[in-house]
Amino acid sequence: MSTKNPDRVVIVGGGTAGWMTASYLKKAFGDKISVTLVESGKIGTIGVGEATFSDIRHFFEFLDLKEEEWMPACNATYKLAVRFQDWRRKGHHFYHPFEQMPTVNGFPLTDWWLQDGPTDRFDTDCFVMANLCDAGRSPRFLDGSLIDQGFAEGAKELSGLTMSEHQGKTQFPYAYHFEAALLAKYLTKYSTDRGVHHIIDEVQDVRLDERGWIDHIVTKDHGSLEGDLFVDCTGFRGVLLNKALEVPFISYQDTLPNDSAVALQVPLDMEKRGINPYTQATAQDAGWIWTIPLFGRIGTGYVYAKDYLSPEEAERTLREFVGPEAAEVEANHIRMRIGRSEQSWKNNCVAIGLASGFVEPLESTGIFFIHHAIEQMVKHFPAADWSPELRKSYNSSIANVMDGVREFLVLHYQGAGRDDTQYWKDTKTRAVPDGLAERLERWKVQLPDSENVFPYYHGLPPYSYMCILLGTGAIPARATPSLGMSDTAAAHKEFAAIRDKSRHLIETLPSTYEYFASMRERS
Ligand code: FAD
Predict the structure, then answer these.
(1) What ipTM does this complex have?
(2) Were 244 and a residue from 193, 206, 255, 285 both cysteine, which residue would form a disulfide, CB within 3.0 to 4.6 Å?
(3) Which of these is catalytic: 4, 66, 79, 346?
(4) Model-level pTM?
């Protein structure tokens, strides 16, 4: 075994995963490592993946990138929530916002809402951000200052923590939407300016040594490339980890059957139309349609199960949903590999992005998985002894995040009130992941809390579960019995404070479009 510290990293793949990894590693380790990124000029990137989690801000902060610098270059906008449209029944909507749940006398406000809520909207009663979403407001004023929502922007004691260390301490009030291709371009420049070696070529072979570790990769035009650590960012192909190292893939399809998508990128006059500050997921007969508003276009797509719908029907439905603006736009049909690799790090190969695993994008978790994996890779970066314990720890962290998100997504389908097509009827008879059935029973009498949700870090705090449970509607939820014997005055004071604060902010904040138009003038 080599006694040298592994300091030559070779990344294969130039999609969001490849370039996020290259830029982060260079920022983390500078000239202590060499980074080479090889991407095919012929095999395209997936071309979707434009909505994120609020924790993504730590990625940009880590790279020292200011919103004014990178957002206009990537046609980026703010995302305050996911809006679920028609999941309970047609015409109904609710938000899953980025906002910590207020607590009153030790109970979450949603619990008080179940006991004695002022209206039938748990989201607008309990969260300021849901009201800002309904009103299409930006979370920042025109001078760039941020609304005060009980979080600490740039708080010294929190900066430098990984995402998992942040959870529960802070909830930043928004995430981003951005054009995936433009972000990859932006990060390409960021990385190559800092010394990442960029090769456009195809990897045709992966050569292993006698121990089964990657010795080198063989490219079509640039010959052999050697490295110490190889990062597989080749998307669903999994060229290094799944193909060369034969790591099995664990499918989630028994619990999450959507395996296909059709996507459109539709240019629109956003000044006229406005920019909604949320990602929308609109339930359909055999799946759901995402709508992601960017500065200048929307990204949209129908995620469906091919057992219930043909690609042609899905495309027709999507085009009808968007309207005449989509007529000339070419559709991108995608087969999705749902699940995760048994191990994401084997020997000297770590897979990040779609090559590691993926679940349908209902809660925009793809880029979150990438960000989490990169943070964990830095945390578990090997020394000369390549301790297997580090890889074991990395693999369990990745598996927990993906398995936890799977549970959360299954809750959306178990909870959905829709039962008007076979697809929605079948959501109630399908298998659920181990442990979830028991948790679902518990949540009927006790709202989700840190003691009774999936027990390992997976990016979703208990309030997220409350939102989906109360919003989708099929699983009965009730207030903690003791609240029936408690004075609700303090809770009503909190509901009134949320109402007043929302009203004031709606009156004073600019619309999302106005904010980004002015940001462009400023930058
Ligand atoms: P890709 O984009 O597929 O890139 C693969 C790269 O590998 C390419 O550069 C290709 O050229 C290269 N490559 C492949 N084979 C070779 C070879 N032999 N030699 C050299 N290079 C090679 N995530 C979110 O966070 N939010 C969302 O809203 C969201 N929506 C999604 C919607 C859909 C329908 C899908 C399928 C995914 C979505 N995702 C979303 C996930 C997100 O798109 C991905 O996580 C993200 O784009 C990363 O992809 P990637 O870089 O792993 O793979």
Answers:
(1) 0.99
(2) 206
(3) 79
(4) 0.97
